[in-house]
Amino acid sequence: MAENTSMEEFEALLNESFEMDTPEEGTVVKGKVIAVEAGQAIIDVGYKMEGRVELKEFANPGEAPDISVGDEVEVFLRSAENSRGEAVISREMARREEAWDRLEKAYADDARVEGAIFGRVKGGFTVDLGGAVAFLPGSQVDVRPVRDAGPLMGLKQPFQILKMDRRRGNIVVSRRAILEESRAEQRAEVIGNLTEGQNVDGVVKNITEYGAFVDLGGVDGLLHVTDMAWRRVNHPSEILAIGETVKVQVIKINKETHRISLGMKQLQDDPWDLVAAKYPLESTHTGRVTNITDYGAFVELEPGVEGLVHVSEMSWTKKNVHPGKIVSTSQEVEVMVLEIDQTKRRVSLGLKQTMRNPWEVFAETHPEGTEVEGEVKNITEFGLFIGLDGEIDGMVHLSDISWDERGEDAIQNFRKGDIVQAVVSEVDTDKERISLSIKALGGDKFAEAVGGVKRGSIITVEVTSIEDGGVEVEYEGMKSFIRRSDLSRDRAEQRPDRFSVGNKVDVRVTNVDSKTRRLGLSIKAREIAEEKEAVEQYGSSDSGASLGDILGAALKPSDD
Questions:
Q1: Which listed site, 53, 62, 306, 395, has its alpha carbon 20 to 30 Å from 252?
Q2: How far apart, in whole angstroms, are the C-alpha atoms of residue 487 and residue 496?
Q3: pTM, two decimal places
Q4: Which residues form the signal peptide (predicted)?
């Protein structure tokens, strides 16, 4: 009877063991640590199965293993039995499965997850998210590039999951998103406490060519170079240094973009408020050249007040010259205020107005008729340009070069650099023109020679040359030509060969041409005039007297 009972109990136990569900491979099971030896933990997972797990699988990155006998842990059952009859289990794989479940829920809820950076890989870092390994791109570490990630290694901190794929085992996280969110909250709080026009203290964080970024306690504001000072600032580093604490005024706040514009010059008095009173029109002042451009030079009258000297107002004499050849940067110059535009904050200045007009000075010191000397600066098709005192030029027109030669021929006798003498014939200060004459040196010989000669006058000339067409004669040094037809009233006597060089001949002046500088002369006209006069005095054609009788009576000497 006893044997039957024991057999029944054994059969019942055997049936019970067959009915029990054995753990499925590839799942997470609970186990108990029954021993720790040789760097491994021996874990009883039940069902009369034990397995071994390396102690390092129980350690978080940068920490020592936290495991002891009696602890209950979850492990991943990879295989129920190996060659040694032990279960093949893994704590790390269990943690990974657990982590993936947790991370998928966090990803779905757009929640933050905690992790620690534990390694560096190409393009970024690896992050332990409590069992699952994620990739942290280098661009997602911080809001600004990180040169040294050492202080971040092993440090538990929040991350944002950007994307994940469980099938491929890929997780991408971002630390930057957390910082930006936190920063945005901080910026919103700081900006909420700021108002336009408020004066605040800040620390210079960065300097660029166009300005400086100032930290106002969690939020940066831009201090543009034009708002640093009323004067011209070529580069922000002239007046600011990184790390310096400065007092600034909030000029503008953009609530949407959270951009803040700052100013320093707004904390000082605007020098333009007194410009009109301090710099009246036509007043002269000393200033410093701050900038030179193609169209002029900027001159600082005082810090914050600059004026432009246009290139046309720089010199009386230097035309079409770059301003840099007249003035230089930092040079002290005397200028005159020409115009002030308070609305546009512009001052027009003149440099040449502080010096006398050289054409007016020349007109005062060199009245018409004054002899001058200068160098031939240029030769053109219409005349010579002569350099004169005061860096100005005078022009000798072709018609004023020589009395005797054509201008086109006379100009060939001159070269650049020749020193010549001339007479001032006209000065036009408005048009800035000076007319000179070379031929007027020594006076007008023609005018002097024929000063008392008029048309109809009888003068005595000397024959200087015999030609087929007539004879050349000279009167007081002036040459003239008597044509063959004018050599006699009698056609038979109109022969040039009846004259000899050196003969003295009385002629009648038929024309005085001051332009061509020629006298029109005629022997024939003289004879006709004498005949007419004789007829009028001693007879007429009606009296019956012959011409010879009349001329004889006219030529007969009168009795005393």
A1: 306
A2: 7
A3: 0.46
A4: none
